[in-house]
Specification:
Helices cover 51% and strands 0% of the residues. With 143 residues, the chain is an all-alpha fold. Helix 5 packs across helix 6 (112-121). The longest helix is centred in the N-terminal third of the chain and has 18 residues, at 17-34. It comes from Camellia lanceoleosa.
């Protein structure tokens, strides 16, 4: 990357949730603009407006507060994510969104299958290897 990568800090007066909310709003508004021209692109924009970072935040807020509002947000929006399960990074929280709730809702088939797929994808010699790992990798299958 040959462009400057400016660093910004979040503070109490400048929280990061505003940025996520602004992006979600822009994507939702854009979906309305493109609706008359293309049927697929607006749907993609709306899926992206329900950003994985917001679901990730709601999962952690539920874990910390036990407030049903956050849990409802997670379960109502988990289906808006792409079916990518083996990705966790700065711009994709899919794996974490499945792993974290699966720890406190062990009887849920909503999160457990993708959580297991992710864990198994990082194992040595899995059928669907997609990441590199150290020699000390350990797998915990959620049962």
């Amino acid at each position: 990357m040959d462009t400057p990568r400016t660093t910004y800090a979040m503070t109490e007066n400048k929280p990061g949730s505003k940025v996520s909310a602004e992006i979600a709003a822009a994507l939702a508004a854009s979906s309305m603009v493109f609706y008359g021209f293309d049927r697929r692109y607006p749907k993609l924009l709306l899926r992206r407006a329900s950003r994985d970072e917001l679901i990730w935040a709601a999962a952690w807020l539920h874990k910390a507060t036990k407030a049903n509002y956050y849990w409802n947000y997670v379960t109502q929006n988990i289906h808006s994510l792409d079916s990518v399960f083996a990705e966790f990074g700065w711009d994709a929280k899919h794996a974490g969104i499945n792993i974290l709730p699966s720890k406190f809702v062990l009887d849920s088939s909503l999160f457990r299958p993708n959580a297991n797929k992710f864990v198994c994808s990082v194992l040595p010699e899995p059928p669907t290897k997609s990441v590199t790992y150290s020699s000390r990798s350990v797998c915990y299958i959620i049962k």
